[in-house]
Amino acid sequence: MAEYEIDYSEVAGRRIECPEGCGMCCLCQPEVLPEERPFFKENYPGRLVKIRGPEPHHALALKKGCGSCVFLENRKCTVYDNRTAYCRQFPFHLYASDRIKVELDLSCRGVWTGNGADALAEAKDIVSRASARIPPALEQSAAVYKEFYFNCREAGVLSDPSRLRMTVSENAGMFAELPYLSRIMDLSQIEPVMSLSGIQPEPRPDMDSLEEAGRDLAMESMGSEDPLNVPVYCDKDWNWNMFMASGGKIRWSVMDDDGDLNYRESVNADDVKLMIPDREGIRVLRDYINTLNGRDSFMGSVFSMMDYNGYEDDMSNAYYGSMAVTVMDLLWRMSMLDRFMGTGCGAEGVREAIIFYDMDRLDAPAIGAFI
Ligand code: SF4
Ligand code: SF4
Which atom of ligand 2 is nearest the CA belonging to 82? Predict the structure, then answer.
């Protein structure tokens, strides 16, 4: 029996499957654990690469250095029984803070169909397979959290994270509506300690500045020429869409199975007009806000930002402000997808934006770690 807390609430009651023809997660270069290395070294020399950087490790090679995993053929894994632990784990993520939180990657289309295996049973199996990695990771992350809370107390910016979560959960609708979002973003900058109670919607939200906020965030994530560093959006026809931003333009390409980018279209970022979700879209968006609100990785990214900013902001301002900014990023992406592909701003448009967005959160600096 594990001596640490594991939160499965995000996956309970869901089903997951891996429909044929996708292969999107095989674009994320998986780490190869030390115990998995001999298999690849002996059987596939040259298909293992060293990744340098702050945390050097081995990973599987990619086609042309930036496409899908070299073991993916016709969108099928050719080493399926020997795929890495991280390949098996996807679309689950285990996040270590002062506990383990099991999160689901909503960029995987297989979590949206409502079919397939019981996600809770799968998650428990994943956790049990990772049981050797969890205690050391938790020990490290718990120490970082302790220091973080100490720093917050010293700076007088500590709020109770469970209370913040409860408040967002009770007011999730506010974060899904532009007139409130606009107020929340403003107040998070000017109030010493922000509260959501009594917030009135902005009668005439400044659409230009909201649009600019969403555009700047989304453009930053697309600001690379390297396909490995830009978000991938796998559409309903299993195309691997990539968007790269430079000089105020967004270039849309589709990566093929050989790792080549095929150009589709470019637009000026200014020509993407911020769309407002309709009633059904707001319902999907509210559900996503509740999911983010329950994620320790989201909380961990807010904590990391507070640490980066030298504990200047109260935790409530940082938390509410970050949630609002995340929604703006998502809404602008929804508008961009609609501009390129006509996905709309209803339930489908918001869902496709979440599929486009959710994997990006893995790159956000955070206190704690995905293991
Ligand atoms: S992203 Fe999801 S559906 Fe696609 S290959 Fe990976 S697990 Fe399967
Ligand atoms: S080993 Fe298989 S499952 Fe893992 S990334 Fe490569 S092709 Fe995909």
Answer: 1
